[in-house]
Design brief:
It is built from 54 helices and twelve strands. With 1205 residues, the protein is mainly alpha-helical.
Length: 1205
């Protein structure tokens, strides 16, 4: 099966086509006759030079370009000492002379490897072949081949004895001792007993509480090894241990460490299937698909190996079209990853997630890590974060996050927080390490060696291991078979080594002893990043190595690179993924090649990847490789490189990597010619637009505005500037400024608005009544005859109008909001249908309901809207339009119980497009209408628990806070305590800071409305009545047009009439009759949900008036209509009130008790246990008492005998 990293880009992932050429005309500007590369004194610093590796898991390639530079791999020699008798310049001249044959190789030809004799003759020497002590080094040569250049041992500091295998019988080609060796492979932890115990204690408590541990310390102190020591313990508990590491060279890559952990999980799931555990594999897949649903495509696009692991996941495309930079998209990513880890944790407990080097993580990754930690619904996990203390300042986002998590743990106790600092080892611990490495026995002599090693390494674990490896490889620490012990000489070690803080230098010296093909493999692997897949490495290696004719391909030695775990370790067995054991080792591998040569190597690697074509997962890798390559000078090559950077920027934006997107866009802009707006307008527009969007998302508003102004100044059609306008609008902090900018843009597009507040008010009223009249006259046929709007400018106008309407709503500019909506509807009816037409008609229906209470015309809007949905089948606006219709329009013309199904479908539609905001609104409508329609309380409680969790996942605190009141209402009626909002937190106090002051007022309005409703149902009118009198129709003003206004008005009326009868106060009676009048007007307009309400309140009013006949008829009518509509709870309550009327006003005890029995039956059917208990307790004297028959013991025995016979 082909690796998924080489999946071609879809057409919609490319902004423009690129003509990639192969040959001498591509990426010119490189000297084909360059001299060999010099070896510098500071081998490490020169090797880095800002050129880091490229992580092949990120993205992909660029046009193939010919090799035109020599790139040398550093030889086995040590860096030149400062007292060397020859200068670097002399060395360079000598090497240039020795390899001058490269300059004569024509383009496209193969380089030949000169023999030693021929090379000697070229140099004017007749001393025989240059063999023996000479070193080999790999160099790139022009244009399609590599060659091997030779130079004498005078250029090195290695002695003849060290280099000649015949004079060193204890050494192999790799410089390792034959016979007994130091036991590095099984070396454990020493001096970390206390820290290990802390980790094990935390692991043991995972089942009780989520554990969060941060391990900090300097580089090389063994932080990762300490955390990895949990692996066996986790396996013993039946859990999973996954490890992800962030790459220092790709700090702008989002989620890289978390994605590695997810990839490892996917690999383990694949292994389950391959090992025959099909039942468990299928169970995991089915559960994940069921829970994730529409978020599966999002995770499939982000997590490598996801498709292979969950091969039975639905094959659907991600229909979400929201911009990745929006808060909606951020919430969606967090939601998807939370669900993923929750489901995995269900099957493998505990789930231990180790995130290494989080000081390199980008801000998005840190925020995602925080989101996973504070997830209230995933308790069986342990998150371990590892970071370097010296890399994290007080201002660092990681430090701020850790402080926040520590405070949150102390205040809310959602999880246990632990942080520990790891230091260097003391001499005793160093001695323990050396004792084990040798033979596990204690030797007094080892103490002196421990002191020496501690002096040289300061007890740093990585430094120590590297130093001891070097002693072994240099023969300074040897095993004497005759004596049966290890030997060393302190004075020799002191003279041959020196103290250094640069562990990279020591690792590099160790690598220099490897065969050259293994060293080159290390360099290529280091350029691929901290982790990579071996198939990808093999592909690149095949291209690189094929151009080195003299390279020795020792397969066994090369394979040891993958197997011995010295430099690289396996991190994904199913897909052969590898990662560097430590980033210092990767840095040392990079330092094997000079900085200048490294850029040429990366150029060739990028070209190799590009030969596969543009790939969806490697576009960023390819662009980065080519950007790090030698600078092109000809215009054609620069333009092609700019196009590649544009693709990389757009892909980075699509995966929320805005820092990377900004960098690629900036790099692409720098490659454009001076007259690019005239010669490359489309490419220029794409790069600048990407830069504007990325800078805005990163908060670089000055840079954003500067680039935006450059675009807006150009003489190009306004339509092409809309992307930049859109980005500016999204990131203007003051809502009114954004609305004003939108108005100016729309006016430039010939969509005019009246000037001044008064003009807008007059226009708004005039156009509203005109539009209502127009809609009244329209038919379904009229909608069917409308064309589909496909003119780009008009489609853009519709989108801008929708945005203007939302901005005006935020600014509380109702006039502008309505004008924008009216323009949208008018454009639809005049020009044709488009994506936003259905939403515009639904919103128009809402306005007609709220402002005009014209339910008939609003119902017509709903019909037209549904017709548009059926015709166009819009993806995103579908669910948005339906939630508006159900919650604000159709609820006034359709039975509420018939809307629950459409609301469920609307919620699923919104989820399918990643629209969490409208999905959350659907949940709110569904639950509140479910409460109002008399849905069984036990089902409601389950749904509140399920959907309440979703709202918290979506971070919709405002909606959640409102629903808490309804949830408490359900819990009270079911005799369940508030704490039985099982598994969901009570965030009433902690969430106050998450909502605005206006939202807080609305929450209070909902709470008051629900209290009145609950008090009325329970008969506590002395509480509900005064509240109803005080608040009046305040709820209707707070939630205009919403379905819940009907319930609020009705239950206020019940309590007000009850208090009017009890107190005789006119204020209660007048307020109650206002509620009656409102319900009667609804009934008169054909509202099916108000028929029983108006009858019920009319009965209450008739009782006060003394019109008993009317009261009795109205009670009967209210009960029958309520049952017909499915409003079981209101039928039950009407029976109770009818019972009181018959008992006290009619003095008809028999009929009264029958109504009371019916009330109890209906309340029980509804699930209102609290109400049933209250009725039975209050009216227990009215029911006949059961007779108790006492039977004597002898009679009992006679009865038992009779039964036996």
């Amino acid at each position: 099966m082909e690796d998924d990293e080489f999946a071609p880009l879809r057409e919609d992932e490319l902004s423009s086509s690129i003509d990639f050429h192969h040959g001498d005309d591509v990426f010119r500007g490189v000297d084909e006759h360059a001299s060999p590369i010099r070896i510098h004194n500071d081998s490490i610093s020169s090797a880095r030079g800002g050129n880091g590796p490229i992580n092949e898991n990120e993205v992909l390639a660029s046009p193939e370009r010919p090799l035109s530079q020599e790139v040398s791999l550093k030889d086995e020699a040590k860096p030149l000492s400062s007292d060397d008798s020859r200068s670097e310049l002399e060395l360079a001249d000598n090497n240039r002379h020795q390899t001058s044959y490269h300059s004569n190789i024509p383009s496209g030809s193969k380089a030949t490897v000169p023999t030693a004799e021929s090379q000697s003759k070229e140099n004017g020497q007749n001393d025989g072949p240059i063999l023996g002590n000479e070193m080999l080094r790999v160099v790139y040569c022009a244009p399609d081949a590599y060659s091997v250049s030779r130079f004498s041992d005078a250029d090195t500091e290695l002695s003849e004895k060290e280099m000649d295998p015949t004079t060193s019988p204890q050494r192999t080609d790799r410089g390792e001792l034959v016979g007994k060796k130091l036991r590095f492979d099984t070396l454990g932890l020493y001096g970390r007993e206390d820290e290990q115990q802390v980790l094990k204690t935390c692991l043991a408590k995972v089942s009780q509480c989520k554990q969060v541990v941060f391990v900090r310390g300097s580089s090389g102190t063994g932080k990762t090894a300490l955390c990895n020591s949990l692996l066996d313990s986790v396996k013993d508990l039946g859990g999973w241990f996954v490890h992800g590491k962030f790459d220092p060279y790709h700090r702008n890559s989002p989620y890289s460490g978390i994605l590695q952990a997810c990839q490892q999980i996917c690999g383990e799931i694949v292994l389950l299937r391959n090992q025959g555990e099909d039942e468990k594999h299928q169970s995991i897949c089915q559960e994940l698909v069921s829970e994730l649903g529409s978020e599966m495509p999002l995770l499939r696009s982000l997590i490598p190996g996801f498709s292979e692991a969950f091969d039975n996941s639905p094959d659907c495309e991600d229909e979400g079209d929201e911009k990745p930079q929006t808060q909606e998209f951020k919430a969606r990513i967090l939601y998807a990853f939370r669900l993923f880890f929750r489901e995995i944790a269900k099957f493998f407990r505990p789930l231990v997630i180790v995130l290494d080097d989080i000081h390199w993580a980008d801000e998005s990754s840190v925020k995602l890590m925080e989101g996973l930690i504070v997830d209230r619904f995933n308790e069986s996990i342990m998150v371990v974060g590892i970071y370097r203390l010296e890399e994290v300042t007080k201002e660092h986002v990681l430090q701020q996050t850790i402080a926040k998590l520590e405070a949150l743990s102390a205040s809310e106790q959602q999880f246990h927080f632990e942080q520990m600092t790891i230091g260097d080892m003391d001499i005793n611990s160093v001695q323990q390490v050396l004792n084990y490495l040798m033979d596990g026995k204690k030797h007094d002599e080892v103490r002196r060696l421990s002191v020496l090693c501690h002096k040289r390494t300061a007890g740093n674990v990585l430094h120590l291991v590297t130093f001891v490896r070097l002693l072994e490889s240099k023969g300074l620490l040897t095993f004497d078979a005759e004596q049966g012990r290890w030997l060393w000489d302190k004075e020799t070690i002191l003279s041959e080594t020196h103290a250094t803080d640069n562990v990279v230098e020591l690792i590099q010296k160790d690598m220099l002893a490897l065969p050259e093909n293994v060293r080159l493999r290390l360099v290529v692997a280091s350029c691929l990043g901290h982790s990579f897949k071996k198939p990808t490495f093999d592909f690149v290696w095949e291209s690189v190595s094929s151009k080195i004719p003299g390279l020795q391909h020792t397969t066994m030695e090369a394979e040891l690179l993958w197997l011995d775990g010295k430099y690289l370790e396996l991190c994904g067995s199913y897909d052969k993924s590898y990662r560097w054991v430590h980033d210092r080792i990767q840095e040392a591998a990079l330092s094997l090649v000079e900085a200048e040569d490294l850029s040429r190597l990366k150029e060739d690697m990028g070209t190799s990847l590009l030969s596969k074509g543009l790939q969806s997962r490697t576009i960023i890798v390819t662009a980065s490789l080519l950007n790090d390559g030698p600078k092109a000078t000809d215009e054609h090559s620069l333009i092609q490189l700019a196009e590649i950077n544009l693709h990389a920027a757009e892909y980075a934006t699509s995966v929320y990597a805005f820092a990377s997107a900004a960098d690629f866009a900036k790099k692409g802009i720098s490659n454009l010619p001076s007259d690019h707006w005239e010669t490359q307008p489309e490419l220029s527009l794409g790069l600048y637009s990407s830069a504007v969007e990325a800078d805005g998302c990163l908060g670089r508003f000055m840079d954003m505005h500067e680039k935006a102004e450059i675009v807006l100044e150009q003489d190009i059609p306004l339509q092409k500037k809309l992307r930049v306008f859109d980005a500016k609008v999204d990131h203007i902090r003051i809502g009114q400024d954004a609305a004003d900018l939108l108005v100016r843009i729309l006016e430039d597009l010939q969509c005019q608005f009246p000037r001044g507040k008064l003009g807008r008010v007059v226009s708004m009223f005039r156009e509203t009544f005109r539009m209502r009249s127009r809609i009244k006259l329209m038919t379904i046929r009229d909608i069917a005859m409308l064309p589909v709007l496909d003119e780009p400018t008009q489609v853009s106008v519709m989108k801008l109008l929708d945005k203007l309407s939302r901005f005006a709503y935020v600014c509380e500019d109702k006039n502008m909001m309505l004008l924008a909506l009216l323009r949208s509807v008018s454009l639809t009816l005049d020009r044709g249908l488009c994506e936003g037409s259905a939403t515009a008609l639904a919103s128009m229906g809402m306005v007609i309901v709220m402002a005009l209470q014209d339910y008939e015309t609003a119902a017509k809007c709903a019909q037209l809207c549904l017709q548009i949905i059926a015709r166009l089948r819009p993806k995103k606006s579908n669910g948005n339009a339906l939630q508006k219709l159900c919650g604000f329009v159709q609820c006034w013309s359709h039975n509420l119980n018939t809307l629950l199904g459409p609301l469920s479908r609307a919620r699923e539609m919104c989820l399918a497009t990643g629209d969490h905001t409208n999905s959350s609104i659907c949940i709110y409508h569904y639950l509140t209408i479910g409460v109002q329609s008399g849905r069984p309380l036990d089902k409601l409680e389950d749904e509140f628990r399920t959907y309440g969790r979703r709202l918290l996942d979506f971070e919709k605190v405002f909606l959640y806070r409102q629903l808490l009141s309804y949830w408490d209402y359900v819990c009270v009626l079911r005799c369940v305590s508030k704490g039985a909002r099982t598994a969901l937190p009570d965030i009433e106090e902690t969430s106050d800071q998450s909502i605005t002051e206006e939202e807080h007022r609305k929450v209070n309005s909902v709470e008051t409305s629900v209290k009145i409703r609950l008090g009325s149902i329970l008969g506590e009118h002395e509480v509900a009545g005064p509240l109803a009198l005080e608040t009046g129709n305040g709820y209707a003003k707070a939630a205009p047009g919403h379905a819940t206004i009907m319930a609020d008005t009705f239950w206020r009326g019940i309590s007000l009439f009850a208090m009017a009868r009890a107190t005789g106060r006119r204020a209660y009676r007048n307020a109650a009759r206002k509620a009656l009048s409102v319900t009667q007007s609804w009934d008169a307009k054909g509202n099916p949900n108000a028929r029983h309400l108006s009858h019920y309140l009319n009965a209450e009013d008739a009782v006060i008036r003394g019109d008993h006949a009317t009261a009795e008829d109205s009670y009967q009518g209210a009960i029958s209509r309520a049952l017909d509509g499915g409003f079981i709870h209101e039928a039950a309550h009407a029976n109770e009130r009818f019972f009181l009327f018959l008992l006290h006003e009619r003095n008809d005890r028999e009929r009264a008790l029958s109504k009371l029995d019916e009330a109890v039956r209906l309340f029980e059917e509804w699930g209102a246990k609290k109400k049933v208990e209250k009725i039975r307790e209050e009216y227990q004297n009215l029911w006949p008492q059961p007779q108790v028959i006492i039977v004597a013991n002898d009679q009992n025995e006679q009865l038992d005998d009779a039964k036996a016979h």
